[in-house]
Amino acid sequence: MHPAQSRYDMGIYANYAATTPILSEAVLTELRAYLDGAHFSAGRNFEGIEEQTIAIRARKAIARLLGAADPLSVIFTGGATASLNMAIHGLAETGDHVLATSVEHNAAARPLEALRKTGAINLEWLQCEPDGTLDVEKLRKAIRRNTKMLVMTHASNVLGTILPVTECFKIASERGIFTILDMAQTAGVLPWSMGEHCDFIAFAGHKGLGALAGTGGFVLGKRARNRMRAWVSGGTGSASHSLDMPDSLPDKFEPGTQNTLGILSLAASVEEILHTGVDAIREHERACLMRFLAGLKGIDKIAPCGTLDPDRSVAVVSLVVKGHDAGEVSARLFERHGIITRSGQHCSPLAHKTAGTYPAGSIRFSFGRGTTEAEINTMLEALSAL
């Protein structure tokens, strides 16, 4: 093992914005027990088993975490990307004016752009500042008579900047605009309650929620559940006599056999988060971020992006090393110090254009529940040595 490596076999891990690399022991224990037993499909077995299914348990935990009133409004998909596609295609109508921010991930930006190119929607990007912040007044001025949808990431996966979602959604909701929130970077990391102004939340299971990859879903608010069209159809185990998708939740948006193992990992990991407390997780990541930003100040040639304010950012920091290619520096950090980062455009060219780091991209450090003070110190020493 490399002398700088930590408890992770692969090295010091600083890529939590991409995925949480190790499942907790509590989650692993439940997965082992499931794999050793019988595997049932929810809704396809004898009467009475439904209340005991893993899916119900996971829905209740996620509803509690995200402040959803009805656990049946929690829908499981393959992840935040599938969820955002379902919302955008399921709510947009021809001629709609749609607003989104200039730091959106491609999971939202690409389906929006695809609809724009076909002429289905009029798409307008709300321009954020280079540090990723957004002036709420830009939203007020951009709203038109036919504005029907506002898509916002909760926090940028490139800059870490937390957007003013609460204020923006209130403005939009009061004008009858559907509000779609991408919580890929914030679910399980930032305290959040859905409230009356949020119509749709997309979440990823494998990042802050600490579940298996290929898991995630969305939560529907009252307005969206009645208006959103089913984008994918198929068998649901209910209303099988009809060739139409059932209107009831969650069946309307969950055709086919679900990923029960992945959903179990979500149930176990979210219950663990609820026990720990999101506030405690946020404070740990904030402390990591604060220590890292403070240490960067003493290192020449490094230009960090974003607000550089731990209170206005999640634990994500993108760096530009003057005179050096981001990919080269990232490779050296791993080869010489066993530190895993991510370089490039991070599936968010819009954010890099906003920050002025396009097309070269940046080196991204991101921290999570497993990050230690010693690891932060090692990262800073490695950057200083390079």
Question: Could you please describe the fold and organization of this structure?
Answer:
With 386 residues, this protein is α/β, with parallel strands linked by helices. The protein folds into two domains: 12-16 and 277-385, Aspartate Aminotransferase, domain 1; 26-276, 3-Layer(aba) Sandwich (Aspartate Aminotransferase, domain 2). The chain is built from twelve helices and 13 strands. The strands form three sheets. It has a seven-stranded mixed beta sheet, sandwiched between helices. It has a four-stranded antiparallel beta sheet with strand order 9-10-13-12, with helices on one face. It has a two-stranded parallel sheet with strand order 1-11. Helix 6 (165-174) links the parallel strand 5 (147-153) and strand 6 (178-182). Helix 3 runs parallel beside helix 4. The chain starts with 11 loop residues before the first strand and ends with a helix.
